[in-house]
Write a structure and sequence with these properties.
By secondary structure, this protein is of the alpha+beta class. The protein has 13 helices and 18 strands. The protein has 2 domains: 4-161 and 311-437, 3-Layer(bba) Sandwich (FAD/NAD(P)-binding domain); 164-307, Beta Barrel (Elongation Factor Tu (Ef-tu), domain 3). It binds flavin-adenine dinucleotide.
């Protein structure tokens, strides 16, 4: 049987290797950290958590919690080790980081199917079945080869993400649909501001705290067209009204006039449940972002499914590069897993390693690959990153806005906990049915 090459012994690569080994498939696991550092990792151990020691919620009515339960349903190996390394953290699932990566490293080292190679990979050989799981801090030489493999326009090195919100929570007594100069169908949602509201918004913005960049990110240059909103604001009180908040061409039907300023929201997913704030890429602390967004008329009670971030992050344009099986469209031998696919977070990285590992095993055995149902959180995530027609693709973490919608009466829809419980039960049922059929 063919051997599989895995590039990167992080969260995704470790889970993928252990999944393949469970299927008695031999793996060469390449990890460069003995020789070269990423700048963020501190050890040479496998599956190191680079920052916080929390994987977020384990509650099944939380999107990230559901993803963890799905991994358990799919026999994820790292989830077992998470439980073995758990430390008390209220509702969150937090671990002793060192114990966790020690345990993963032992498991990998003692596995007869996994051969560890401490080396920086600088080539992609598309004759070899390979999972690329080299993470957000992929080494420069490998990044260059990935660029050659997938094509010039499909690899990014920096996130500049605007916040994304749930449409259902927008107040349409204030917000309205309209395109600038009334062109085409009314695709944009507009949140109008009068002078006083704008001044209040501006005051909150310039007084908000920013997240400090890490040392390996300090040299990052922002494109002028992609400047953080706080940087534009720092150039003067009026700059936003001539930039992302310009009201020109947006005549409000209710008054017959243009407003003083307008925040525009653009559709973010196919089912139109999510919208992003146009021009709002930001590096503000999350608490400040929340206060700022909730100060916008129409968004006072809005659910924020992802906050804006700006940080170093190597990721591919998965909608153009990958199938929902995580196999590359260009060459069946090549799979991608982890944060490099455009999912974000520890839990999401492990989950995509799990799926890539399972699918690579099926590929090696000549079986059909798995495409998970979009009623599941992992299925929804892989569909989001591979099928959606994004105006500009940006990484995402698990959230309820991406999961296949469900018909519910108004009262149940308004009860968030109950709604999420129904969605979570549906997901586990779908997953059980799906795995029984295989
Ligand atoms: C600074 C930072 C902080 C983060 N903090 C959090 C957080 O607190 N919570 C959260 O949920 N998520 C966080 N993330 C996001 C994400 O969850 C983690 O980065 C996660 O580790 C990604 O998993 P991965 O398997 O895709 O990549 P990694 O875990 O980074 O694994 C990739 C591995 O590939 C290796 N590698 C790279 N290039 C090569 C090469 N050419 N040859 C051989 N090996 C190579 C690297 O050394 C690394 O071990 C953070 C990311 C960064 C960059």
């Amino acid at each position: 049987m063919k051997k599989v090459k895995i590039i990167g012994g992080g969260l995704a690569g470790s889970e993928a290797a252990l999944q393949l080994a469970k299927e008695n498939i031999y793996v060469d696991l390449y990890e460069m950290r003995d020789i070269k550092t990423t700048g963020a990792h501190k050890t040479n151990k496998f599956a190191e958590f680079v920052c916080s020691n929390s994987l977020g919620s384990y509650d099944i009515t939380n999107a990230s919690g559901l993803l963890k339960h799905e991994m358990e349903e799919l026999d994820g190996v790292l989830m077992n080790i998470v439980h073995e390394s758990k430390v008390p953290a209220g509702g969150a699932l937090a671990i002793d980081r060192e114990l966790f990566s020690e345990k993963v490293t032992n498991l990998i080292q003692n596995n007869p199917f996994i051969n560890i190679i401490r080396e920086e990979v600088t080539e992609i050989n598309d004759d070899e079945p390979t999972i690329i799981a080299s993470g957000p801090l992929t080494s420069d030489l490998l990044a260059k080869k990935i660029l050659d493999f997938i094509g010039e326009d499909y690899l990014y090195f920096f996130d500049a993400i605007a916040p994304i919100i749930e449409k259902e929570s927008i107040n349409f007594d204030k917000a309205f649909y309209l395109n600038r100069y009334n062109k085409g169908t009314a695709d944009y949602i507009n949140c109008p501001m009068n002078k006083e509201e704008y001044e209040n918004f501006y005051k909150i913005l310039i007084n908000s705290e920013r997240i400090e960049l890490k040392s390996f990110e300090k040299n990052a240059k922002f494109f002028e067209s992609c400047l953080p909103i706080e940087v534009i604001a720092s150039r003067g009180e009026e700059t936003l009204r001539f930039g992302p908040l310009k009201p020109v061409g947006l005549v409000d039907d209710r008054t017959g006039k243009e407003n003083y300023a307008v925040v525009q929201l653009r559709q973010d997913n196919k089912s139109a449940s999510l919208y992003n704030l146009v021009g709002f890429q930001t590096n503000l602390k999350w608490g400040c972002q929340k206060e700022l967004i909730h100060s916008i008329p129409g968004l006072e009670n809005v659910n924020i499914v992802r906050y804006g971030v700006m940080h170093r992050n190597t990721f591919i344009n998965s909608p153009k590069v990958l199938n929902a099986t995580l196999q590359s469209r260009k060459n069946k031998n090549i799979f991608f897993a982890g944060q490099i696919t455009g999912t974000e977070g520890y839990t999401e990285s492990i989950a995509s390693g799990l799926l890539a590992g399972k699918n690579m095993a099926r590929y090696i055995k000549g079986q059909d690959l798995i495409e998970l149902p979009s009623e599941t959180m992992l299925g929804a995530l892989t569909h989001y990153i591979t099928f959606e027609e994004h105006s500009s693709f940006q990484p995402i973490n698990s959230n309820w806005g991406i999961i296949a919608p469900i018909e519910l009466d108004k009262k149940t829809r308004k009860n968030k906990k109950l709604k999420n419980e129904i969605l979570a039960n549906r997901s586990i049922e779908a997953l059980k049915k799906f795995t029984q059929q295989r």
